[in-house]
Sequence to fold (273 residues):
Amino acid sequence: MNVCVLGLGEVGLPSAKYILEKNMKVFGYDINESAAERAKRLGIEATTDWKKIPFSQIYIICVYAGLKNDSPDFSSIYDAGRKVIEKQRETSTSEKCLVSIESTIIPGLCRKLYEEIFKWQVHLVHVPHRFWSGDPVRHGVRQRRVIGAIDGVSMRKGWAFYKDLLKIPLHKVSSIEIAEMSKISEQTFRYIQIAFAEELKMVCNELGMNFDELRTACNTKWNIEIPEAREGIGGHCLPKDSKYFTSLTSSARLVQSAMQVDDVYKKIIHKLK
Ligand SMILES: NC(=O)c1ccc[n+]([C@@H]2O[C@H](COP(=O)([O-])OP(=O)(O)OC[C@H]3O[C@@H](n4cnc5c(N)ncnc54)[C@H](O)[C@@H]3O)[C@@H](O)[C@H]2O)c1
Fold:
């Protein structure tokens, strides 16, 4: 069985490596030459030339999707989708490939791709990644993941691949939209927790109290886990994914407030330096 991973970055590369270690034939595709080179050094047949990728039974989309003018921009996912369907149409076999989108997206995108780009010619699942490079063993490729599918056959195919072949523990949800929403909800929840820690630290500064001591004291309660307040909420996922969340509604008041808290906190931290 051929598996092709599109996007060989922080998430796609360890995923491709993991699949290779399960003795499957893995092809990697990236638009960036150095990403493809890095993958080749790990034994993955990687290229920036899509024509060199053979028809694969499974395509895993791990490309980075970001923001454009502060709004979700999924052009890279569309691009990857178009490439996959091109391969599917070129093959003489009537076998439909399985496409798994692991990148973080918003509810409705999978269905839109399925109807507008894939035109019902593939099986489709969404298995959002939860990768954390800080602890790739416990929180890497082989951690519990949510899986949602466009239909029952896709779910069976996705389950057989991830659970039976890759041995990745899965939590099945009843629709692909729930899977899409689960990822940005997790991320936004985390964003709010950190923003609360930032607010608490600013209040402590105002009151002349030691934030670290207060935090440690609160965290002795069984259901409290206040995170650290560091340099402001950064990284290339949490702020982006929270913006995906707010793009869905005009009533995300708590999240909007958390974003304002983080802005103020960053300015204060900057001044203190
Ligand atoms: N980094 C993490 O810890 C993490 C964790 C969970 C989920 N995610 C999500 O996974 C996705 C990928 O994130 P990442 O951190 O791996 O990003 P990354 O920037 O490290 O890697 C993305 C790769 O995709 C490639 N790419 C971009 N457009 C492409 C295209 N059209 N075709 C082929 N390749 C293309 C880039 O060249 C890059 O090598 C994002 O949606 C992100 O939100 C990331």
